[in-house]
Amino acid sequence: MALIMKYIESINRYMDTHSDSRTKDWPMMSSPFPTLAVCLTYVYLVKVLGPRLMENRKPLHLQNLLVMYNALQVVFSAWLFYECLMGGWWGSYSFRCQPVDYSDSATSRRMVHACWWYYFSKFTEFMDTIFFVLRKKTSQVTTLHVIHHGCMPMSVWFGVKFTPGGHSTFFGLLNTFVHIVMYTYYMFSAMGPQYQKYLWWKKYLTTLQMVQFILIMVHAFQLLFIDCNYPKAFVWWIGMHAVMFFFLFNEFYKAAYKNRLMKQNAALANGHAKPNGYCKSINAHDDLFLPQTTTTEATAAAASATAKANGNGNAALSNGHANGLKNGYKTLANGDAVTSLTNGSAHKSNGVLLANGFGNGNGYATQLLDDVAQELKHRKTPK
TM spans, by residue (predicted)? Predict the structure, then answer.
């Protein structure tokens, strides 16, 4: 234990020697361990303790609180964006190379204060996840979400401690702008379904965040190829964070896009005919066309048909128009019996049965029904 305390003391002494003297006495700036402790507590709360406490409780309805919280975050982010601009990025800073201004000028002081408040904003964003837990939206508490929020305070702490200003603040400038857009979306989304028509730009949010990380990567890594009085360690620190978050958000985007495609395909399979209209089940003619015999057998067959209508995939057409035997049997003029398709959508045109009026350009369903018709010619219905 004494050895650990010795190492901690050495780290603190090194930081005091090399850190910015303007921020060393500010809240949470004396050591990285308080920030690390808060981040670890956040992860434990939202991944373990919170879900456990909410497991047997009803989700909380926090609509008014969510609207207020997101509105405050929009105002806070807008103010931070403005302070970053006024602290140097509106005409004073260079996008090519911007060393840290360690002087006591009014402009540099303004940027230093903006950096600390940006660091503080990373803690307020923990509420995003806490609200998900309280509302039992556990699907939203993804690994990406927790890593993103859990790492940011620790990452920004080093910037405020050593380089509160200069080149690395470009990250904060872009990030506060993205948060203006993001929390505006969250605010309108929390206000109710009547505002959904104003949220057509939802699908562009993740794209905007990925563009943000690309710009940060380019802006940071350019200093590896030009001479600039800015610490190379922070070039790698900011740049690699941007790389990590870009790939995490990219994976999230691809997963979300894949899910949307799966839902669209499911909707197509459940309610729309495919162009060629072929029947997927090999045993379809065995399930859809049976001879009607005695009353007892017909009753049993009808019961079996009902069971198939409720779940037997062998009697189902792949386009969802026929889900099995549902309406019983329909007797034809020649005494043979066939079952009708779901929703009464069996039609006869020129001796060929069509499902829901859709023909089969490739002849699969037509050939199937022709085969069944030929088989039924050799069957007789008992009197």
Answer: 33-50, 62-82, 172-192, 204-222, 234-253
Instruction: Give residue-wise pLDDT tens across range 42-52.
Output: 999 999 999 99
* φ, ψ (nearest 5 deg) of residue 339: -90, 150
Q: Residue 344 burial (CB < 10 Å; 0-12/13-18/19+)?
A: exposed
- State how far the Cα of 291 lies from the Cα of 46, in Å rounded to an integer: 62
| CA dihedral sign of residues 32, 35, 41, 43 | negative
The SS3 assignment for 29 reads coil
Do 104 and 214 touch, CB atoms closer than 8 A? no
Q: Is the model more confident about 153 or about 266?
A: 153
**66 and 186 in contact (C-beta within 8 Å)?**
yes
Q: Name every residue whose Cβ is closer than 8 Å to that of residue 338 and which is 6 or more positions away in sequence.
A: 288, 289, 329, 330, 332, 346, 353, 372, 376
Which of 18, 113, 148, 285 does the annotation list as catalytic? 148
Q: Side chain identity at 189, as an amino acid letter?
A: S
Q: Is 195 helix (H, G, I), strand (E, B) or coil?
A: helix
Q: At what angle do helices 143-162 and 106-124 cross, to 10 degrees?
A: 150
338 SS3 class: strand
3-state class (DSSP) for residue 135: coil
Widest Cα–Cα separation across the chain = 107
Q: What is the arithmetic mean of pLDDT over 365-374?
A: 54
Residue 350's CB: how many other CB atoms inside 10 A? 5
Average pLDDT over the chain, rounded to an integer: 75
What is the CB neighbour count within 10 angstroms for residue 91? 7
pLDDT of 244? 82
The proportion of the chain whose per-residue pLDDT surpasses 90, expressed as a percent, equals: 43
Query: What is the average pLDDT across 305-329?
Result: 40
What span, in angstroms and rounded, lies between the C-alpha atoms of 367 and 171?
Answer: 65
Residue indicated by tokens 């702490």: 157
Beta bridge partners of 337: 331
Rounded Cα gap, residues 303 and 331, in angstroms? 18
Q: How confident is the model at residue 144 (pLDDT cuts 50, 70, 90)?
A: confident
Confidence of residue 18 (pLDDT cuts 50, 70, 90): confident
Active site residue 145: no
